[in-house]
């Protein structure tokens, strides 16, 4: 997944390496004009440019075949881009490969990344050595990870005997054994039950918030993306069609209407033209087709005159899933 022991001979502090890092100090991942055309001429990734700040949880979303895995594999140095450039912590993935890949831990195919006949403990020692760590350094780190992930008691059992959630945790622990600043997670909660998905989700939050890791994750579970990601990029047919902080993306799609809920019925009061009122479980939902203060006040004044109690008032906000479907649909 990451470099071989020989890679580690390269000096990360040569003037050239330092110069290469300059200019992108704040960005953990810089992707410029990245494209991948497979041998069958399929353009899987088409001129993608992204800058991911250190400490960000970055959600890479897109429909099947959009190019997410191809992008993540190029970031991990597992697929060579056709054109474009990727820098990890300032190191160029193609020209400073060994230093670049040491910046990352990746969980790309979930539990298939780890060896099922081996125990969790053996897997972590194996991956630690593979990545050039010494045994003396690996053991405390492995113990810490397995304890944090609640696997310490089962550490000597073969991974094949674990539940899927536990296997996924071992894969995450293996990716974290070198304590890399950047973590790539392709579908980290795929196929997990509610509890296991929650544990993995909480762990991702912990890594980002408490350990300051930069995390790139792909998922089709948009509620998870909405909960976890600080920033979201939507990719379709290889191109980025949206790239915004999650809050801004949601705000941008906040609708131009205000919903007012009142207790009971409207007792026959008349609302301004265009305002819709519909009964809802013993209450009434009023939709004001505008967010202009004067339009909203016009409704509120009539409710006040009618002595009608307001229960809530919100600007209509579609979920990330609705926004995603609209974005995908817009470009279809
Ligand atoms: N090795 C390959 N050779 C040829 N085409 C490929 C190869 N790998 C992927 N593709 C194609 O590249 C496109 C992007 O695939 P990719 O796996 O990156 O998409 P994805 O967004 O991760 O999809 P999914 O959500 O289904 O996992 C798809 O059309 C896919 O068929």
From TrEMBL:
Record keywords: Antibiotic resistance, ATP-binding, Nucleotide-binding, Transport
Subcellular location: Cell membrane
Alphabetical list of PROSITE patterns matching this protein: ABC_TRANSPORTER_2
Gene Ontology molecular function, alphabetical: ATP binding
Any Pfam family matching the protein: ABC_tran
Domain ABC transporter: 29-262
Keyword check for Transferase: no
TM helices/strands, residue ranges: none
Topology in membrane: Peripheral membrane protein
Coiled-coil stretches: none
Listed Gene3D superfamilies: P-loop containing nucleotide triphosphate hydrolases (3.40.50.300)
Family designation: Belongs to the ABC transporter superfamily.
Protein name: ABC transporter ATP-binding protein
């Amino acid at each position: 997944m990451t470099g071989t022991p020989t890679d580690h001979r390269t000096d990360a502090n040569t003037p050239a390496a330092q110069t290469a890092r300059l200019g992108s100090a704040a960005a953990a991942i810089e992707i410029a004009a990245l494209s991948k055309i497979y041998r069958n001429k399929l353009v899987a990734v088409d001129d993608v440019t992204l800058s991911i700040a250190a400490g960000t949880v970055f959600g890479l979303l897109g429909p099947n075949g959009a190019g997410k895995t191809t992008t993540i594999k190029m970031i991990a140095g597992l697929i060579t881009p056709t054109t474009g450039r990727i820098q990890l912590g300032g190191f160029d993935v193609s020209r400073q490969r060994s230093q670049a890949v040491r910046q990352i831990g990746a969980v790309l195919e979930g539990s298939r990344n780890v060896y099922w006949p081996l125990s969790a403990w053996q897997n972590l020692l194996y991956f630690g050595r593979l990545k050039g760590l010494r045994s003396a350094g690996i053991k405390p780190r492995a113990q810490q990870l397995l304890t944090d992930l609640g696997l310490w008691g089962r550490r000597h059992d073969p991974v094949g005997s674990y539940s899927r959630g536990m296997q996924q945790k071992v894969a995450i622990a293996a990716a974290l054994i070198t304590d890399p600043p950047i973590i790539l997670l392709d579908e980290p909660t795929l196929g997990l039950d509610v509890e296991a998905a929650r544990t993995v989700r909480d762990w991702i939050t912990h890594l980002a918030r408490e350990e300051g890791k930069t995390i790139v994750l792909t998922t089709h579970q948009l509620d998870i993306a909405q909960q976890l990601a600080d920033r979201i990029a939507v990719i379709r047919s290889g191109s980025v069609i949206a790239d915004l902080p999650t809050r801004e993306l949601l705000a941008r799609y906040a609708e131009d209407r205000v919903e007012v809920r009142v207790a009971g019925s409207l007792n026959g009061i008349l609302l301004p033209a265009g305002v819709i009122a519909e009964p809802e479980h013993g209450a009434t939902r009023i939709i004001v087709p505008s967010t202009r203060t004067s339009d909203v006040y016009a409704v509120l004044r009539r409710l006040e005159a009618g002595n009608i109690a307001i229960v809530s008032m919100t600007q209509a906000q579609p979920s990330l899933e609705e926004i995603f479907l609209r974005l995908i649909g817009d470009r279809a």
